[in-house]
Amino acid sequence: MRKKITALALATAVAGAAALAQPGGFGGFGRGGQALSQPFVGLTADGGIETGLFELEPTGVGTADVRAAAERFLASLSDEQRARTLFPVDDTEWRNWANVHRFERQGVSALELNEAQRELAYGLIRAGLSERGYETSRDIMRLNHTIAEIVGNFDEYGEHLYFFTVMGEPSADEPWGWQLDGHHLVINYFVVGDQVVMTPVFMGSEPVTADGGKYAGTTIMQPEQDEAFAFMQSLSSEQREDAILAAEKARGENEAEMMSDNVEVAYAGLPATRLDPSQREALVDLMGLYVGNMDDGHAALRMDEVMAHLDRTYFAWKGRVESDGVFYYRIHSPVIYIEFDHQGPVAMDLPRGVPTRNHIHSVVRTPNGNDYGKDLLRQHLEAFANDPSHGHADAAALASR
Length: 401
Known about the structure:
Layout: E1 4-6, H1 7-10, H2 31-37, E2 48-50, H3 64-76, H4 79-85, E3 86-87, E4 108-109, H5 115-128, H6 131-151, E5 162-167, E6 176-182, E7 185-192, E8 195-197, E9 201-205, H7 222-234, H8 237-243, E10 244-246, E11 270-271, H9 277-291, H10 296-308, E12 314-319, E13 327-332, E14 337-342, E15 360-365, H11 374-383, H12 395-399
Parallel strand pairs: 3-5, 10-12
Antiparallel strand pairs: 1-2, 4-5, 5-6, 6-7, 7-8, 7-9, 9-15, 11-12, 12-13, 13-14, 14-15
Helix pairs in contact: 3-5, 7-9, 9-10
């Protein structure tokens, strides 16, 4: 039976007293350090965690391919590189990511790897994601090269300036995972047994289309943009009235990007219960674009989870409802949280305060404490707390990091 527990009750111990140093954009005593010094709670609607949503259970969908890909990647590294890449499964490194370009990242970057190592690193992404998810990820990297070409700065931008870390040792039984962290692309991929949690995920780009240069013609996230607009167009005036939170949008609207693990976002907008069958199908298809970045088997399981809570799902919108307008939308249920935002320019030489379709941010999270697979990790640690072969001591404190 589901029940609510307060964030205060869940977070009874502070996970680490000292803030991590964050040079390159976020000071150790600034937003990043403050966020990491707080125990993990997760995104909530009102500060309270709804329990009983996620179960530690076999799924029948294998994780052997991603495990083998991780093992091959780690085996290719030097001892020094491997030492920089590996972290404990409960480490705060999971939460130490940023979607901006100026940020001191951990692990090994694809840029420093030789060609064979780099192929194995990208093979890890391919093993965990669907073909579409992998190609979108690589296209975001390619567009990071495009912005380097445009602004003439290959020190801060570039195709291979993305960092890999592995939390825990790849295992068929013990929890582990990997993280990809870089400008406009962050993937957190947690594995326990044959279960996978792939959130938080950040995807975006500026520009979203390469008009020239090495990767001319590369473009991202047009379906996520266009299908949402078509969905809005399908709504009646009464439905739009509920969905639209603001007729104009600000430069940046996303609530749940970097260093926002414990953000509170109330349910708002149009409930799925007020949609007709074709509109409900369109909303499900829109969510499927994001969920479908996972490997096909785990994406299907995730969509089952999403569908089980469809009647508790809300769609919200900010901005114009016109063919060339800029907008923000949010999809929010107890088990999934999706944001898409047309942002103001940062690197491009355009008015900074004016949102544009040429700069997109999107983020996907698992509310109620299961980002980074934290709820599943907690359940695993508690289940095997007294098993010496697992060596899980102080399970509650470890899971709150």
